[in-house]
Amino acid sequence: MIDKRFESVAALLDGVADLHDGATVLVGGFGDAGVPERLIAGLCALGLRDLTVVSNNAGAGEHGLAALLAAGCVGRMVCSFPRSAGSVVFEELYAAGKVALEIVPQGTLAERIRAGGAGVPAFYTATAYGTPLAEGKESREFDGRGYVLEHAIRADVALVHAATADRWGNLTYAKTARNFNPVMAMAARTTLAEVRELVPMVDPEVVVTPGIFVHRVVEVGR
Amino acid sequence: MKTLSAADIARRVAADIADGAYVNLGIGMPMLVADHVPPGREFVLHSENGLLGMGPAPDVADADPDLINAGKQPVTIRPGGSYFHHADSFAMIRGGHIDVSILGGYEVAANGDLANWALPGPKPPAVGGAMDLVAGAKQVWVMLSSHVAKDGTPKVVERCTLPLTGLACVNRIYSDLAVIDVTAAGLVVTDLLAGLEPGQLQAQTGAPLRFADACRPLQPETA
Questions:
Q1: Which A positions 122-181 lie with beta carbon below 8 A of chain B?
Q2: B14 near B37, Cβ under 8 Å?
Q3: What does the DSSP 8-state code read for residue A187?
Q4: Domains plus CATH for chain B?
Q5: What are the pLDDT digits (tens) for A173-198?
Q6: Residue B183, beta-bridge partner list
Q7: CATH number of the domain that residue A177 is part of
């Protein structure tokens, strides 16, 4: 019988071979919406080093990604907007040269992750053509317009936050807490989901992330 | 001379958006446009974080942390709205489905180049969705709360000096002094602050201006 449910965050994180020093981790969320806070806290407790974290923002305050950064687990951030209100931890580490930053236009970030999940190694996009963010990248004209070659992002692990899940790992989301979570779920070797509520079965008509993309789930409440 | 307020500019921008348009409002001043939709007109506001049909901010007591806008502020959803993930949201933008993107700007060049994401300084860079919006939306309009910077330097220039957001992407500029179309033949002023002489606008602009034959006067709202 397929059963992807775990009793606790610690049990879910135990024995995940893809979580190791130097791993690339996709972390869902936009601002404070849809951030897998409990999984990030659990990851923090593992004490890994030199992680590459791919997430739209770089955390705020002292919780979530900010705590992971403050604990010295992150060597490199890939994000579109690391400068949200309260992103003090990241800004200090960045200023001290303790964390590297790759800045990516938000749509290019989403598409690079989707491409990773869909087996597309790279694609051309008009976004960023002619700007500093295209420097050093291949470019090409199609029908007289310039495009930049962007490479897919694949990760070792994705951490996602969802509203409901069933034992097969089918997921639904809540409003704009969906954001990057569904595309990230598709682009990692191991996808770990924290959910507000486990249900016997998600209605197949409303499944947003089919269980094929999800390996372990844990209920964390609201 | 009294110039247009931010609300005046937002009112004018809103008046120029066609009924039924799908519109993305950038963070900051462009958000004001949502407060000035003319009666009887319906726009569908797109929020990059996965929302179509964005409505106004709720009362504090009704704020839902799951329902926020691109600026991470609580919002509401209107009837007919929908939620979707980030790749779909940016497929709407990058795939040319958004009718108008309204953004703020540091500099706009006569050829439509835009610089609006990076200023000199030690802060880490942050681009968000700006480069996607200018590359993908059918129309890009830039709102400038003041036609010149605080030190008097023109924001409308021959060539941008700050890092670019996109090449030849801006279609129209709305400032506190004028509405300017960016055309293949250069900048064309279609609306000018009432009482301002064309030469006075040109003196505050870093690129040559032409004035439309039917150039209309802009009136600040009397509060």
A1: 125-133, 146, 173-181
A2: yes
A3: S
A4: 6-177 (3.40.1080.10)
A5: 999 999 999 999 999 999 999 999 99
A6: B186
A7: 3.40.1080.10
Q: Grade residue A60 by pLDDT with cuts at 50, 70 and 90.
A: confident
- ipTM, interface predicted TM-score of the complex: 0.96
Which tokens is A150 given? 């962007």
Q: Is A213 helix (H, G, I), strand (E, B) or coil?
A: helix
Residue with tokens 């590359």: B135
| pLDDT for B177 beyond 70 | yes
A84 close to B (CB below 8 A)? yes
The mean pLDDT value of chain B amounts to: 96
CA distance B223 to chain A (A): 33
Range B200-213 average pLDDT: 98
Q: Measuring CA to CA, how many Å separate A130 from each of A137, A143, B207?
A: 11, 16, 21
Predicted pLDDT of residue A87 = 83
Work out the average pLDDT over A159-171. 98
Q: Is the pLDDT of residue B223 over 60?
A: no
Please judge whether A173 and B65 are an interchain contact, meaning their C-beta atoms are less than 8 angstroms apart: no
- Considering CB atoms only, which of A90, A104, A176 is closest to B67? A176
CA distance A134 to A148: 7
Range of the domain at A11: 5-219
A chain contacts of residue B66, beta-carbon cutoff 8 Å:
33-34, 174-177
Q: Helices B86-94 and A106-118, interaxial angle, to 10°?
A: 120
Contact A181 B67 (CB under 8 A): no
* Contact between B83 and A178 using a beta-carbon 8 Å cutoff: yes
Q: Quick one: pLDDT band at residue B132, thresholds 50, 70, 90?
A: very high
Token readout for B38 is: 């003319």
A window 95-124, beta carbon within 8 A of B: 95, 101, 103-108, 110-111, 113-114
Q: How many domains does chain A have?
A: 1
Helix (H) or strand (E) holding A181: helix A181-186
